[in-house]
Amino acid sequence: MNSFVLMAEIIQPPQLRYTSENKPIADMLVEFSVLRQDEQPATLRVVAWGNLAEEMNDTCKQGDRVVIEGRLSMNTVERPEGFREKRAELVARKIHHLAPVAATGLPPTTPTQQVGAAKAPPVNMESRRPVNSESPAPVTAGIRSSKSADRRPEFSPTPTPPIEELYDGAPSRQEPERVAPTPPPPLDEDEIPF
């Protein structure tokens, strides 16, 4: 199944055109960040057809953040230099607009900035609380202190009964009944073609 979901920023506004059959088609260029901070953001062409093309032309503008659902497609383009170039494009099925930056009150961020900013302080796995970096809490393997504020009952697994008790004895094997294969039907050898 070819299903693709992309969160991106529009860097080139949509351009609406019509085919010779008067079917609307629109395309725009979007940019999305990659996971590695040393790489440049990637760009991708987004194509929409029909009513979605007209809606994309009316509602999408440069700088908008969108989530696009669709399928990935590869196109081969003849270049003037005399060679063929393959290009990936996203054929949109749905476009979801994200809240504008002004409405959230937050500064604009890219996914790479979010990944880099997600450095949380270390957490003590016993108490699930942040650890002070100057004096790390001692680590105890599976031992709860009496000072622990969150008391949870200890887990004790229920013993599993032997398999014979589950099946009222050992499972029995039955041999399948052997049946001779049926012979093929006789061939029709007369000269009538049906």
Automatic annotation (TrEMBL):
Gene3D superfamilies: Nucleic acid-binding proteins
Alphabetic keyword roster: DNA-binding
Region of interest (Disordered), residue spans: 102-194
SUPFAM superfamilies noted in UniProt: Nucleic acid-binding proteins
Keyword Nucleotide-binding: no
Keyword GTP-binding: no
InterPro entries: NA-bd_OB-fold, Primosome_PriB/ssb
UniProt xrefs under Pfam families: SSB (PF00436)
GO molecular function, one term: single-stranded DNA binding
Domain of life: Bacteria
Name of this protein: Single-stranded DNA-binding protein
Taxonomy of the source species: Bacteria, Bacillati, Cyanobacteriota, Cyanophyceae, Oscillatoriophycideae
